[in-house]
Amino acid sequence: MKRIFLLPLLAVLMAFGASAQSDPKQPLVYGVAFYNLENLFDTINNNGQYDLEFSPNGARQWNGSKYWSKINNLAYCISKMVTKNTPMGPAIIGVSEIENKSCLDDLVRAKDIRQWRLQVVHHDSPDRRGVDVGLLYNPRLFKVLDVTNHRLVIPGYESFRTRDQMCVTGILGGDTVSVIVNHWPSRLGGQERSSYLREAAASLSKQIADSLWAIRPNQGVIIMGDLNDDPQDKSCAVSLGAQRDEKNVGPHQFYNPWWKILDRGIGTLAYKGQWNLFDQIIVSGTLLNKNGARLCYRTCKVNNFDFLFDTEGQRQGYPKRTFAAGAWLNGYSDHFPTEIFLQVTRR
């Protein structure tokens, strides 16, 4: 486990976000989002055969023009994640499928979001394709205290390599919150045959949460990411124990609001005409009003903006991705971003 300590500032004891919401009558609301950026690679081949595809000489002819177009498209999408109560967009944005920190540095400097001055947390994972998870955050709303990275080890499969789980702990709305950013193993080989890998990943997330609560029993924990499973699948519902109904969730258990969203036919990615909701943001019982939380979960939504849909061809009505069938579509991602909203209930 690799640990990075960041020196806490005196300001961590303040209720951050007040500068963004100066009217004391308005609720203090914080957006927490997740977005699979779908193969955000730079144009330099640093990873042999796995990276060749995303280089000027590769099959996708991935050049500077295409790279910067994708950066600007993703920044435009993030810029639209604003609401009346979150005028500076999400306080925290977990991301996946990024090659390196420089890609995220380019993203936060893109013209549509540079005014937010988002900061980047990144860690190089052992994934064979060279893709990682990361976290963007607004330093006016969230103050990072600590970052740890956790490797998924499968007994008997020591050569298996996937993305590390990144746990970022900080101050949000005056409370300590930890965000565990994930990109669980894929369904390669079939959903059932590969389920044990995601079940192991879910167990690792739960172990991280338990270790956090051993130190701070009342802190909030958010597990987010492209989980490559739906809310009702075994990894989420059993291994992690993320429940469908808020009323059944104890302080050190998890509530999964996306279960009901998928029941309504709303998903984040589509395959063969069927929607899945892999991009989940799951909250601990310590973030629920029923358990006496000060910073409380309120609602969630899939940010399926109209411009993110493909409008023609066989993929009409699906997320407009960067490539399809080898052709460059100049799109965004094959996943829609998701977001939850937390509100300070007592000041």
UniProtKB/TrEMBL annotation:
<keyword id="KW-0732">Signal</keyword>
<feature type="domain" description="Endonuclease/exonuclease/phosphatase">
    <location>
        <begin position="32"/>
        <end position="343"/>
    </location>
</feature>
<dbReference type="Pfam" id="PF19580">
    <property type="entry name" value="Exo_endo_phos_3"/>
</dbReference>
<keyword id="KW-0255">Endonuclease</keyword>
<dbReference type="GO" id="GO:0004519">
    <property type="term" value="F:endonuclease activity"/>
</dbReference>
<protein>
    <submittedName>
        <fullName>Endonuclease</fullName>
    </submittedName>
</protein>
<feature type="signal peptide">
    <location>
        <begin position="1"/>
        <end position="20"/>
    </location>
</feature>
<dbReference type="InterPro" id="IPR005135">
    <property type="entry name" value="Endo/exonuclease/phosphatase"/>
</dbReference>
<keyword id="KW-0540">Nuclease</keyword>
<dbReference type="InterPro" id="IPR036691">
    <property type="entry name" value="Endo/exonu/phosph_ase_sf"/>
</dbReference>
<keyword id="KW-0378">Hydrolase</keyword>
